[in-house]
Specification:
This protein is mainly α. Helix content is 67%, strand content 0%. It has helices at 7-17, 22-29, 33-40, 50-59, 67-79, 85-88, 91-106, 111-123.
């Protein structure tokens, strides 16, 4: 899986991994190079439209259901301040989210504690 801290970073890393310049990628897929450049640099937020995200994912060669495919859509949701759909589809996890948010808001949680919290949520 490609690493990346933000949607734009991840998008760029996926494109570069395909060994395509920005211009090549945009010409091949019919995208506006200026918009993709701004998207990759974090100057333009990811589109909210699922259809547009699907177009981008297809252009990047993401296989539906792969780790990178989920990460792509999760980062787009997170970037827009939304909870990723895969999380919202699990009622048990959604029921525990208020506790997670309170825990994170009320005290600093180090990486190990956060990893344990995530694992507890996954197992429940």
């Amino acid at each position: 899986m490609v690493k990346g801290a933000s949607f734009g970073d991840f998008f760029r890393a996926l494109r570069v991994e395909r060994e395509e310049t920005l211009r090549q990628f945009c010409l091949k897929n019919g995208f506006d190079a200026g918009n993709i450049s701004r998207l990759e640099r974090g100057r333009l937020p990811p589109p909210r439209s699922r259809e547009k995200l699907d177009e981008y994912a297809k252009g990047l060669g993401l296989e539906e259901g792969s780790d990178d495919w989920y990460k792509f859509f999760d980062l787009a949701a997170i970037s827009a301040g939304r909870i990723p759909p895969a999380i919202l589809s699990d009622e048990e996890v959604v029921a525990r989210l208020p506790l997670v948010f309170r825990t994170l808001a009320n005290r600093q949680v180090d990486g190990d504690e956060l990893d344990r919290l995530i694992e507890l949520i996954r197992r429940s």
